[in-house]
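User: Reviewer 2 asked us to show a designed sequence for the structure in our supplementary figure. I'm pasting the structure tokens here. Could you produce the per-position amino acids so we can include them in the response letter?
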């Protein structure tokens, strides 16, 4: 049976105005334009997206429920702090789920999926050489999705998508630890090689260690932030 894998460019589904507003707010946060504690101004978002205030308010409610934002009395919705405790919990869960996804797919990495992974790794090397953190972050997400989105791990992957969305402060994380990009890439290559060799147990161990290394680097950087 021919293996299927997630395409790099899925057809884009219809987006509601509230979803467009939520995406805009997330990008404001991930880019560092709107730091933790900053108030989200409904009118500013509405004007930027070209919509009315109502869908922006819907987006804000949704982002509060997803913990991107928090409601402050007499202030309104502000960007949530990304704390060390958040990092430990989120990356700990990510480590468990991503390593489990590899264990569930008991087959060597090969064929179209392997070629797609190699294309991502080649692009990652280019991004590192150019110092392009945003490009590397996107390719990092693509790499892990290729490994975790299989017929045997669909449920795990759906859970991971939510976590990846929540930690897409991942871009913020990579900006805090740009020195880690080459290390992260080397870890990706080691995981790829283990999977291509069919050593699933080794690949799972490497994947778990990879997430823990990312967590520890980010915590170290956060502890050193002013």
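Assistant: Here is a per-position design you can include in the supplement:
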């Amino acid at each position: 049976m021919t293996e299927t894998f997630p395409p790099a460019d899925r057809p884009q589904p219809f987006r509601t105005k509230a979803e467009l507003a939520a995406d805009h707010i997330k990008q404001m946060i991930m880019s560092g334009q709107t730091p933790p504690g900053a108030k989200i101004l409904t009118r500013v978002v509405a004007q930027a997206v070209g919509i009315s205030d109502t869908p922006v308010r819907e987006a804000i409610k949704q982002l509060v429920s997803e913990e991107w934002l928090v409601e402050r009395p007499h202030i309104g919705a502000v960007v949530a702090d990304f704390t060390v405790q958040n990092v430990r919990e989120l990356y700990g869960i990510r480590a468990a789920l991503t390593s489990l996804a590899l264990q569930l797919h008991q087959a060597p990495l090969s064929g179209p999926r392997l070629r797609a992974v190699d294309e991502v790794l080649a692009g990652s090397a280019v991004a590192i050489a150019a110092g392009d953190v945003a490009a590397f972050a996107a390719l990092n997400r693509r790499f892990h999705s290729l490994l975790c989105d299989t017929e045997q791990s669909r449920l795990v992957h759906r859970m991971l998508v939510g976590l990846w969305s929540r930690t897409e402060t991942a871009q913020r994380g990579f900006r805090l630890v740009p020195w880690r990009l080459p290390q992260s890439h080397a870890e990706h290559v080691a995981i790829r090689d283990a999977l291509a060799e069919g050593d699933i147990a080794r690949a799972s161990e490497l994947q778990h260690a990879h997430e823990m290394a990312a967590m520890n680097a980010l915590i170290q950087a956060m502890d050193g932030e002013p």
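For the response letter, you might also mention the following. The chain has a mean pLDDT of 87. The radius of gyration is 19 Å.
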